[in-house]
Design brief:
- The structure holds 2 protein chains of 2 kinds.
- By secondary structure, chain A is mainly β.
- Chain A is built from no helices and 11 strands.
- In chain A, the strands form 2 sheets. In chain A, strands 2, 4, 5, 9, 10 and 11 form a 6-stranded mixed β-sheet that branches.
- Chain A starts with a strand and ends with a strand.
- Chain B is an all-beta fold.
- Helices cover 0% and strands 53% of the residues of chain B.
- Chain B is globular.
- The chains are: A mainly beta, B mainly beta.
- The interface between A and B is medium-sized, with 27 and 30 residues.
């Protein structure tokens, strides 16, 4: 059962455009991570957000954690072809175990 | 520092056979988790091992099993393969596991069941 819904599922844009990807849940997150997965590779961690309302920036990527900690967004400014990939949000466990619950994913294609 | 290594990268098996996949974590990492990735179900947690003990298990049938060795290397086994087991199997390692720690993923093993 998928507990995290991401939207949109697919996004095809031109280089230089801006975009936002959303991650939503019906339950509260303790903390959340965003990963990017390129074809033929495993996911790579981009950021961890912990506090409601938190905003983190990673170069052209801006991550926001909702005030109620039930949603998050990833905004990319001036997308580049290197941003192409599968973007995944993941809920971290409250316990000491390493068990990520992943979102449904957003596949991004940035064309030159 | 070497990353997480999974072998083999690609595998083709026949229905009913069994398969063993291997994962070597980053040196010093004691937690190894396994995930299955399919187009329909996305990325789903299989199980996690820490210090040779299974700490957590996902919602998969008993045909899926794993183990961890004293050097933290881990294997997962799938018996009586079904067509639906075709997937990318990913292994992730982390120093201790748990919340807010980063999981480092390998490149995965692409299993095709025919």
């Amino acid at each position: 059962t998928q507990l995290l819904e991401q939207s949109p599922q697919f996004l095809s844009i031109q280089e230089g455009e801006n975009l936002t990807v959303y991650c939503n849940s019906s339950s509260v997150f303790s903390s959340l991570q965003w990963y990017r997965q390129e074809p033929g590779e495993g996911p790579v961690l981009l950021v961890t957000v912990v506090t409601g309302g938190e905003v983190k920036k990673l170069k052209r990527l801006t991550f926001q954690f909702g005030d109620a900690r039930k949603d998050s967004s990833l905004h990319i400014t001036a997308a580049q072809t290197g941003d192409t990939g599968l973007y995944l949000c993941a809920r971290l466990p409250n316990t000491g175990f390493q068990k990520l619950v992943f979102g449904t994913g957003t596949r991004l294609l940035v064309s030159p | 520092k070497a990353g997480v290594t999974q072998t083999p990268r690609y595998l083709i098996k026949t229905r009913g056979q069994q398969v063993t996949l291997s994962c070597s974590p980053i040196s010093g990492h004691r937690s190894v988790s396994w995930y299955q990735q399919t187009p329909g179900q996305g990325l789903q947690f299989l199980f996690e091992y820490f210090s040779e003990t299974q700490r957590n298990k996902g919602n998969f049938p008993g045909r899926f099993s794993g183990r961890q060795f004293s050097n933290s290397r881990s294997e997962m086994n799938v018996s009586t393969l079904e067509l639906g087991d075709s997937a990318l199997y990913l292994c992730a390692s982390s120093p201790m596991g748990g919340g807010n720690t980063e999981a480092f993923f390998g490149q995965g093993t692409r299993l095709t069941v025919v």
